[in-house]
Amino acid sequence: NNSSQLSSLPLQILLYINGIYYIFYFLATLAMIIYKSQVFSYPDDLLAPDLAVLFLMGILEVPRLYLGFKGNLTEAEAPLGLSLGLTVGSVVLCVYLLLWQTYVLWADVLLNAVLLSTYGLESGLKITAIAAFVS
């Protein structure tokens, strides 16, 4: 009877922290986009894509975290792998908001740098957990 536990506590904690941080990130980024649209001459055709990227990222975050939690706790590599794939999508959207949104403030750089760091750390822990589950 092999009762060894393979799920990763550091990954579980990081997923939880990321869930909380993402709520803060989303609200802060949304507030800054609204602020920038009031203070700067924000071209109307560029406001929608910046908002769309943020909302798409928010939509991706729910299944990304859910599959991460589920995959880790059930020690199943498929949901964890899907979560890792969604993380790649979130990283691309995060890089857009870091480099290519219409106006990038120092607060945007800070928020996105923290998010990218947690995504990187989380991805490393997911890969490690997947390797443990399949071995």
UniProtKB/TrEMBL annotation:
Its GO biological process annotations read:
non-motile cilium assembly
Sorted UniProt keywords: Cell projection, Membrane, Transmembrane, Transmembrane helix
Q: Which InterPro entries match?
A: Uncharacterised_TM-17
Q: Does the keyword Membrane apply?
A: yes
Which Pfam families does the record cross-reference, listed alphabetically? Transmemb_17 (PF09799)
* Membrane topology type: Multi-pass membrane protein
The membrane spanning regions, by residue number, are 13-35, 47-66, 78-99
Q: Which PANTHER family match?
A: GEO07735P1-RELATED-RELATED, TRANSMEMBRANE PROTEIN 80
Q: What is this protein called?
A: TMM80 protein
Recorded source organism is Tychaedon coryphoeus (Karoo scrub-robin)
